Amino acid sequence: MMALYFRDLKLATRAGGGALTGILFFMAVVAVVPFGLGPDLKLLARVGPAMLWIGALLASLLGLERLFQAEREDGSLDVMLMQDTPLVFTVFIKCLAHWTASGLPLVLVTPLLGLFLNMEPRAIGATMLTLLAGTPAITLIGAMGAAVAVALPRGGLLVSILVLPLVVPVLIFGVSAAYAAVEDPAPFLPPFLILTAITLFFAVIGPTAAAVALRAASE
Amino acid sequence: MPFRLRVDGLGASRGEDPIFRDISLILDAGGALLVTGRNGTGKSTFLRTLAGLHPADSGTIVIEDGGDATAPPRESLHYLGHRNAMKRDLTVEENLLFWSRLTKTAGDTVGRIDATDGTVEALESVGLGGLGHLPFGYLSAGQQRRAALARLLVAHRPVWLMDEPTAALDTASERMVEALIAGHRSIGGIVIAATHQALDLPGAQTLTMAGFAVTA
Question: Which residue of A has its CA nearest to B135?
Answer without folding.
Answer: A14
